[in-house]
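Board notes (copied after class):
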Amino acid sequence: MSKKGYWIAMVDVRDPDIYKQYIEANAKAFAKYGATFAVRAGRHTDPEGPTGNRHVVVEFPSYETALACYESPEYQEALKFRQAASTGRFVIVEGA
């Protein structure tokens, strides 16, 4: 049994309207690759310094699936909106 894969993002959204387009556009890739949201925005506290105004943890069936989703044409098209609307830190990690 393979371990799950996760996307973890800490983002500063500069343009909420364009970021909404990213959310709409990424739905196709997330559905195709079986993504589920463990965290999608919500309240947060930054006890060790600023981490952005939006935080997201996306779970995938495996690390390989998480990578495949990121590299997919569907997600690469959506990514253009995120990069235009925000800055942040993003990692794909293998987990439990």
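Comment from the instructor: Residues 5-94 form a domain with the Alpha-Beta Plaits fold (CATH 3.30.70.100). Residues 24 and 88 are 19 Å apart (CA to CA).
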